[in-house]
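We were asked to recover a plausible sequence for a given structure. The inputs and outputs are reproduced exactly as logged, with field labels preserved.

PROBLEM: sequence recovery
POSITIONS: 192
GIVEN STRUCTURE:
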């Protein structure tokens, strides 16, 4: 089961997805809301935090979550203080009941990862791609439009029309033809 703990939060935050199962993982912690209370409401036994990237809105709640549950953090760049353990490009990561392939997808931020599971038919897209063909900002530090386009293309080449759900860093998850939103993002990012 995948639950967005940040749903309904009015403060500025990223989404924070609790993926329950064999290995219960929080994908991004969000910021400016009580993530610990929301995890406890679900009576979840958290095993780890996995980060799509280390922008503050995605890691603002990190310290309170790791302290409360005694878990470590996994992400692309262990040089960042928020990341305890490295996830390499193409590494397999267990989220809930499924194995996901980590895809290094820079362009929005150098340490950005997406996670794709063909078996679950799910993509965690972070801030690379959003609903309706929107895509991550490239005007922030480490932003690079050409790299972003390459990363979107890489993700598009990994998925297909059978993808059931795309969970994004901001806004609603896409559960109706998410492949189309990825294709739109690939086209729109080229035009920017």
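RECOVERED SEQUENCE:
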């Amino acid at each position: 089961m995948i639950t967005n703990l940040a749903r309904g939060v009015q403060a500025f935050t990223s989404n924070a997805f609790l993926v329950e199962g064999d290995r219960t993982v929080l994908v991004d912690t969000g910021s400016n809301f009580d993530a610990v209370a929301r995890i406890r409401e679900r009576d979840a036994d958290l095993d780890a935090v996995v980060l799509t990237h280390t922008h503050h809105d995605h890691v603002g709640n990190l310290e309170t979550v790791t302290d409360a549950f005694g878990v470590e953090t996994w992400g692309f760049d262990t040089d960042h203080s928020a990341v305890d353990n490295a996830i390499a490009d193409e590494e397999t990561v267990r989220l809930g009941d499924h194995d996901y392939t980590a895809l290094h997808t820079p362009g929005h931020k150098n340490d950005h990862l997406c996670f794709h599971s063909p078996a679950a038919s799910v993509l965690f897209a972070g801030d690379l791609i959003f609903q309706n063909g929107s895509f991550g900002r490239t005007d922030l530090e480490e932003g690079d439009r050409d790299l972003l386009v390459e990363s979107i293309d890489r993700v598009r080449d990994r998925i297909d029309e059978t993808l059931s759900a795309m969970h994004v860093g901001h806004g609603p998850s896409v559960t109706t033809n998410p492949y189309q939103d990825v294709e739109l993002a690939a086209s729109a990012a080229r035009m920017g």
